[in-house]
Write a structure and sequence with these properties.
Layout: H1 2-23, H2 28-50, H3 59-86, H4 88-96, H5 100-109, H6 116-133, H7 147-168, H8 174-196, H9 202-228, H10 231-254, H11 260-275
Helix pairs in contact: 1-9, 1-10, 2-8, 2-9, 3-4, 3-7, 3-8, 4-6, 4-7, 5-7, 5-10, 6-10, 6-11, 7-9, 8-9, 10-11
């Protein structure tokens, strides 16, 4: 449970730092590139610090990391495109519901069935996510509906890549997996940053470096949590818990008003965290 809570805290920190970047008109792609670069450097340092492990082959880990890195960045790009066409509220709702992909896949493929109390916790978590998803809607004109299920699928698959590594990859190569994933994501992001030819400031790089640390450890703690709890428990609680912390952080740090359903989501997450730990 400690690893899951740590992953939630790191995930919320990422979103709040990105929210801060939007208030200061930072170069989004430069921030993202710096974030991936720092995550790559730190995960590489962790990998060398721990050594190569028990001589386990690295080819599978590298291939899994390659796929994860592509999904990480593809999810980011699709998210931004969908916001432009469908608005932040609707896009964010579908991205949050992306946890249905690893949840359902784990139940069907690996038969990872939670206990009765944990099922109750999952129910509270999904109710909290649903409450947030239907809080706000923006009138953005014609919407490109096809993008929305695509965002759900790709974001969900990106989350699921952590579970796939936890299931099939050597446990002592988690740092190598993350280094490969963030390395690929960095190269993709760097290409977009250079292609857009938007001015990059020192503040963009600094903010990206600050985001990179929690980004790396959010994934690392999530993988560790999956070693101790079923994926059907981890992903709904991870999504709901981080969402609630983002709501509270936005209210405290940026003066954002909490809607009635936002407050309901906060109230639902508290019993969810208790129940999944029973």
């Amino acid at each position: 449970m400690v690893f899951l809570v740590a992953a939630i805290l790191c995930s919320a920190a990422i979103a709040l730092l990105f929210k801060f970047s939007e208030t200061r008109d930072h170069n989004r792609y430069a921030v993202t590139s710096a974030n991936y670069l720092v995550a790559l450097l730190v995960s590489t340092a962790m990998m060398w610090g721990r050594g190569p492990g028990e001589g386990a082959p690295v080819s599978l880990t590298l291939w899994l990391g390659l796929g994860a890195g592509i999904l990480f960045f593809a999810g980011f790009i699709l998210f931004q495109i969908s916001i432009r066409h469908n608005g932040a509220g609707l896009t964010g709702s579908f991205a949050k519901m992306g946890i249905l992909v690893p949840l359902c896949a784990s139940l069907i493929w690996w038969r990872e069935f939670p206990g009765s109390y944990q099922w109750s916790g999952i129910g509270f978590s999904l109710a909290a996510i649903t409450a947030v998803c239907f809080t706000k809607r923006e009138d953005k004109g014609p919407r490109t509906r096809l993008l929305l299920p695509l965002v759900l699928l790709v974001v969900g698959c990106a989350e699921f890549s952590n579970k796939i590594f936890q299931k099939y990859g050597p446990s002592d190569q988690a740092s190598l997996f993350l280094a490969a994933a963030f390395g690929v994501a960095f190269l993709c992001s760097l290409g977009f940053t250079l292609g857009r030819r938007q001015a990059t400031r020192r503040g963009d790089i600094l903010l990206g470096c600050l985001v990179g640390i929690p980004n790396l450890f959010s994934a690392w703690f999530l993988i560790e949590a999956l070693h101790h709890l079923p994926a059907a428990v981890v992903f709904p609680v991870f999504s709901a818990g981080s969402t609630v912390l983002i709501l509270l952080g936005g209210s405290l740090l940026f003066g954002e008003r909490l809607e009635t359903r936002d407050r309901l989501a906060v109230a639902l997450v508290l019993p969810a965290l208790v129940l999944v730990n029973l």
